[in-house]
Amino acid sequence: MRPLAWSLVLAAGLALAACRNDGAGVGPPPPATSDPEGKDLVEGAVVAATEKTGGIRILKVMEVNFFPPPMGDEIVFTAFKEMANDFQHASDLWTTRRGKGLMTVEMTKIRVQRQQFRQRDYRVIAAEPVTPEEKLAAPDAGRFKDLAPR
């Protein structure tokens, strides 16, 4: 081969070796902060939140139950098993794995009061509707809606 051809092959090989295959940067950038009042925690929000044991847990808001003070609103989450290193990594994981059905549900329903959850460091990394299949996976999500006065 000619020296020019070898240099092109070498350059192409180095360019491919420099490419990351972990999905880095494919998700939208997470916001710099979360809403201090927790008003961004709405049905369908995909949330990345820090864990006390380290890492970032990915959660999806399945439902928000509104209660009068002093109790406050209750948020029903589905938690996923996959953990991220930081908020951008969580966004990348959600973007690359969710569409392929590769996110593993860890717990189908976690009930948390809004005022307790907003004390955590979290970011809303996506928003999408809650599907009927997701509602079936969390059978008692929505049970308080039946108690609302008509």
If you had to describe this structure to a student in words, what would you say it looks like?
The chain has four helices and five strands; from the N terminus they run H-E-E-E-H-E-H-E-H. The relative contact order is 0.21. 25% of the residues lie in helices and 28% in strands. The model is unreliable at 4-23 and 141-150 (pLDDT under 50). It has one domain. It is an alpha+beta fold and 150 residues long.
Question: What integer value in Å does the Rg equal?
Answer: 20 Å
- The stretches of 5 or more residues where confidence is low (pLDDT under 50) are 4-23, 141-150
Number of helices: 4
Number of domains: 1
- Assign the structural class, choosing from mainly alpha, mainly beta, alpha/beta, alpha+beta, or little secondary structure: alpha+beta
Strand order, largest beta sheet:
4-3-2-1-5
SSE pattern, N- to C-terminal = HEEEHEHEH
Largest sheet properties: 5 strands, antiparallel
Helix coverage percent: 25-40%
The shape is globular
Euclidean distance between termini CA atoms: 82 Å
Mean of residue pLDDT values = 79
| Beta-strand percentage range | 25-35%
Query: Total number of β-strand segments?
Result: 5
